[in-house]
Structure prediction request, 323 residues.
Amino acid sequence: MESSVLTLPTSQDVAAARSNISGFALRTPLLKLAADIPGVNIFLKLENLQPLGSFKIRPALNVLRTMDPQRLRHGVLTASAGNFGLGLVFAARQIGVPATVVVPDGSATTKAKALADLGAKVIRLPFDEWWTVLTSRNFAGEDGVFIHPVAESAVLAGNATIGAELIEDQPECDAVVVPFGGGGLACGIGSVIRRLKPGVRMIVAESEAAQPAAAALANGGPIKVRHIQSFVDGMGSTTVLPEMWPLIRQMVDQATCASFAQIADAIRLLASRHHVIAEAAGAASVAAAMGGLAGKGNIVCIVSGGNIDAPKLGAILNGQSPF
Prediction:
């Protein structure tokens, strides 16, 4: 199926993306975490505060605003665990076209409901079948333009707007920790960091559910890994996408793994000290930094989303196991 040649965004691409998303996506705050960790200052880039609860509104808006409207006349289609789907449905509504979102069966119920409430056609599939749709960029019977949630140059540029904001707000950062789903967020942010602050470490946070980035970095290329269904539903896959690997290799210095228990602890901490609701994927970066996996200094953690099912959140806040 049709796919674009991936390129890292230029400074002009990022400037255009900032203009494209202005008025819809928020410039999110950078908040210092109230935690006493010797030699470490953790800053939270609160993308969970975006409309619809995640950073994905940025790339979704940007990719549709860079496309010829005539191509979009039959609508748009994507494969998403939920957050990119939400962003794409929102962006599609702005230009008056329908959206179909294929979601894996382990995705959060709250995300699927929100998609339907926004008017999307939602198709739920077992993970392996969903992964096939994601990688083939096609679903039989749907003729909307497929928008990949990760591997689109305009998606990377939309993600890069986060990097531009955080460097403006914390120019003295030593490391940026990014939850790793497919690598689009890390590569978008990393493109800005490498250009403006090349000494800053780019670190991705994975979980026990799946560690494709760590495996690829250790192997020198994508390799298939185990993926288990868990409460960390917003990230994790069986392998790094081949088209993303050249960019990930350039942009990512280190991959870390936060345990389920560490992620649950981070969710509780964010809620109790800052009244911030983070989904498990969004809290993975904080869990990694608090566990010492990102080193010392000023560490910026991307809290990528806050769309967590209420029963899971309730269990975590009550000290019970969601996994």
